[in-house]
């Protein structure tokens, strides 16, 4: 098991101040973050099979447009080819939904709804 880094200690050593969590969103760094997330969270079940996140206990259907499924398949294939990480397209979709949900606060959701209502009023 890898040792945990003490980010507060590292920041103090560098004369810096921690101000919050930074997440990668796209491009090379986003892809590397995705590979790291898959490697850190996915484990092979005790009975064998495809690696998965052991905390995922709910199973639901997720309707997708064909282009979205193709894109997920492409990303999964790229992760396998370049990162050596085996992940299915729907596992990838579940991971993206989970990460987005964590980042979207209730306040931000209300702001998005209010902005959409304002846009509708302007176009009417």
Task: Kindly describe this structure.
- The protein is mainly alpha-helical and 124 residues long.
- It has one domain.
- Helices cover 59% and strands 0% of the residues.
- The protein contains five helices and no strands.
- Helix 3 crosses helix 4.
- The longest helix has 18 residues.
- The radius of gyration is 19 Å and the shape is extended.
- The N and C termini lie far apart (58 Å).
- The model has no long low-confidence stretch (mean pLDDT 82).
Integer tally of domains: 1
- Poorly predicted segments: none
The helix/strand class is: mainly alpha
Give the distance, in angstroms, between the N- and C-terminal Cα atoms: 58 Å
**What number is the mean pLDDT?**
82
User: From the alpha-carbon coordinates, what is the Rg to the nearest angstrom?
Assistant: 19 Å
Helix percentage = 55-70%
Question: How are the SSEs ordered, and which strands pair?
Answer:
Blueprint (H helix, E strand, L loop, with lengths): L6 H7 L13 H15 L24 H18 L5 H15 L2 H18 L1
Helix pairs in contact: 3-4
